[in-house]
What does this fold into?
Amino acid sequence: MAKNRSIHPLLVAAASPFQASPAPGVTHRGSRSRVDLNGPWERYLNGSLYDVIQAPGSLRPLGSFRLQRSFLLPKLAARQRAFLCFDAVTYHGRAFANGTELGAMGSYVPYEFEFTRHAEEGSNTVEVVLSDLIPEPSGAGKAEIAVGLNPGWEGYGGIIRDVYVELRPGAFIENIRFAYKLNGGYTKASCRAQVFLSAAEPASGRLELSLFHGHSTVARLSQPVELPAGSSEVEAVFDTDAPPLWSPEQPNLHQLAAHLETGLGADHYACRTGFRDLQIRGRAFELNGRALVLNGVCRHDMWKDQGFTLTPAQMEQDMRMIKALGANFVRLVHYPHHRYIIDLADELGLLVSEEPGYWNMDFQTMPRAQVEAGLRILERIIRRDWNSPAVFAWLLANECN
It folds into this structure.
């Protein structure tokens, strides 16, 4: 994996966003365009149409079935790339675009698959083979079902969170990992931003990085980049003075924004983050130099007959009620919850812990494939949420040997 490491401070101006050709059902989100695939999907059992379901939605487990729907795409612009994105399915899925298999998915966490070479102007078809109770005849999904489906809580299959197609420029920002070290008096933070990039072909350009607190610019940096085809990383290092700290009492948030400009197009990526100092001293926790006692509750990401598929208002109700109790901590049991729950925890000032789904299992006798399935979930949820100051810990397992 190629890495570019030099960084140069520079005040920069915003570049014009990359835009795809307008088409019905396409919404523009800065440098990217999105086609919403939420809504009706046909469900097939044993090759025959069974019913029409709504995605996202949580379905009573049936075994193994296929979901299918069609959608319209505009003609892709030069060097534009198309990705099929699932925020979460349960418990194992295989995704197809226009008859071509794109890849497999585990439970509860985001997956995305590039299908640029298979995208067609006009009508396209997407399919998902889901296993929620029994694996496919080939055995695919056995380990994922064993991790995800258990008697500890209700089981649901389906596309449980949003599904969409995203059109991106030829080179784009995949993710950012923001890390920092605070000095003893919290008067300075030494910061490091690791930026993960993807390019369809080699390209030259410029990466700009900005850190904001409210309307104030805390840091702004720029550097030239040389991108190989495929994935690469760029690291930016800078200092900032006396950053306002995040805590349950004062949930101060910062925004980290990156802008990539190359001959393959321009891309913008932003996420929220925060500064806090968490220490473990013996059996005691300290947050920002003060003793921390966790007072909280466990929360399942479920709602009545809706299973794992909640509305934003329902998620807000849960988290605001927990905050109103006087809690400062929520154990998100026992599997990854919706990303919006993490956003709410950041905003409200609630520490959270996350888990991959291991429950009442024996790691000494568990098949290796089952261990790996859970670890893949844990890795993806760490990469999704690693910049959120509310995330207190990632727990490996619950009530396991």
Observations:
- The longest strand covers residues 171-182.
